[in-house]
Amino acid sequence: MAQLLDLSFFVSLMDFLVICFYLLAFPLSLVRLFQRYTIFSVLSSHNFSVKLWIDDQRPPPSQDWVWASNLKEAYEAIVRYPLIKIISFDHDLGEEDTTMPIALWLEEQAYHGYGEPIIWRVHSYNPVGRRNLIDTLERADFYWEQKHGRIENRG
Prior knowledge:
By secondary structure, this protein is of the alpha/beta class. The protein has 6 helices and 4 strands. A 4-stranded parallel beta sheet has the order 2-1-3-4.
């Protein structure tokens, strides 16, 4: 009986190592393809979506928003909730922190055809930061429109 337990542990370890090898050996696009057609597509089909509010001072307009008050929290929310459908951006997040890296990341995702279009809003009072965010997010929309067709958005 002890040998059987040891062998089953070895098989589990081997399975784990094989999975790790495949994750490292295959391009990330295959992992995304796998994710798209498993639990994430099930959640999407049930209208499960998250709204992300990024602002260091103002609270979200209602309780159904996930609130990120800095860039780190925003990245953590994006990782934690892969089905974000709406993001509302403030530009300035205190000190030298801004939401531009998130907007640029969304533009890059759209350019490469990853993910689904995201509805975005900019609620920043900073006119220059607001314009930069809108320009970047409109470019993301342009790339997503090439893949998905017309998108209803925003500003």
